[in-house]
Specification:
The protein has four helices and eight strands; from the N terminus they run αββββααββαββ. The chain has about 130 residues and is an alpha+beta fold. It has one domain. The strands form four sheets. It has a two-stranded antiparallel ribbon with strand order 1-4. Strands 2-3 form a two-stranded antiparallel ribbon. The chain has a two-stranded antiparallel sheet with strand order 5-6. A hairpin with a 2-residue loop joins strand 7 and strand 8. It is flat. The protein starts with a helix and ends in a 15-residue tail after the last strand.
Length: about 130
Amino acid sequence: MEYDYTRILQQKHKVYTYKGFPIPFAKDGVTMQQLIVIGSVFLLLFLLGIFVYMQGVASLVALIKKGWMIMIVLTGVVIWTLFSLNWDRKSFFSYLLDRFRFKKNTYKQYEHGQLVEIPLDCIVKYDIGRR
């Protein structure tokens, strides 16, 4: 029987080498989450550059032509900062997801595990009976 240590120990999938060569500055490996986020950010920057060239906005075209290296470095620094930040002993993305869930469920009321739907403009009156 084979154990799935990734699921049992809740370890993240990591990449340690690329074609047999170790990844520099990442001795502990690079997680798949980091690869996906970094790839999607650079893809977004690339698509933004194509859009700017197609639209022909002169100031943005000049910014991309002259400052492409600065844009790549700043993007890398921002991504590295976001992955290294911790709030409430959790990663930045888990923190943002939890905050989104909290704000989404702020005005919902539960009683005994059941959702109680009370309109916000409703005034609740209690009848006080005689003893």
